[in-house]
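help with this.
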Amino acid sequence: MQVVFDKKTGAAPIKLFTDGVPVEESAMHQLANVARLPFVTHVAAMPDVHWGIGATVGSVIAAHKAIIPAAVGVDIGCGMAAVQTTLRADDLPDSLAPMRANIEAAVPHGRTDNGGANDIGGWRGRVPDHVGAEWERTLAKEFEQIADKHPKVRRSNHANHLGSLGTGNHFIEVCLDLEDRVWLMLHSGSRGVGARIGTHFIGLAKDEMRRFFINLPDANLAYLPEGSQYFADYVKALNWAQRYARVNRDIMMAAVAKAVRKAVGRPFEMTETAINCHHNYVAKERHFKQDVWLTRKGAVRAGKGDLGIIPGSMGARSFIVRGKGNKHSMQSCSHGAGRAMGRNEARRRFSKADLAAQTEGVECRKDADVIDEIPAAYKEIDAVMAAQEDLVEVVAELRQVVCVKG
């Protein structure tokens, strides 16, 4: 761990868990900008840290009585879900193409407005009862309350997007661990409604900065202090989007399990090892003897005993981990490998042949539209894991055999 502290500006300490992993200068500049904000008490950078909008992806920010909406971002509640099954490698069919097709048919993905929420009653018997119940009894009604006060968030396809994957680096995978046990894993968030909520409140925070003539090193660091006009509304909308994201993953995981059962032609069970964790969110926590609003922007909670998921890129290994509760990282770890280059650069640098070579043995798309997700566009997962040995211990190491991209 390296500690950066600028006494001249009174900046908060930045604790870097990046040994052996390159960190771009632009990311270090962003970390310094965040640390200089008067309400920020501590900053931690995970080994997958890289440039983001306003705040770096792979950073943990402790703030006293304020939240930076752009640091949370627009994919509120984005995270991972994984479950170990009773299937083994030899239970899988020789050809995994039908399994991928089943999953793609079962879970809307890509740029789509189609989800499962318009047929909420049809979920009965297909997904756990609590999933449908939470949507019908609480989430749908609470959204109306938020939208009544902030009409701009209403047109968000929140019902249609529920149960859908999205685009970009979101994915669904069937994996094998080192003992050839089958795992199901997926990555997604709050979809269009999270983006609408995030964009709306980022704009309101910027309006507040202009209203009070507050100059910032980056306009995307606009913040909402406790007690200010929009703070409570943002926290309510934020918490709602985080719950929506978790339910969204629950629904998709049930659909994936059904699709896999169809492909293997036999029943199987989910084991007790099930994880559903955010890596893009805010929580009220206590660190360094102070209650703070803790933003994990591309970071997973890794309190002592907490289970988390650190995925590699498509074609690389992923890890189920248990947190060690490291106080210096504010009980956090990385949320993945982290991008080593931008999407446009990856498209310029690599070809479909490169993608096919780097995803050999994985049943997945290998076309031009997913070249930006090629493994070489990400940091080396082994280096990322080595840099956070003080933060987590590995519970299971997974390799993908099927990958569905948004």
Remarks:
- DSSP finds ten helices and 17 strands in the chain.
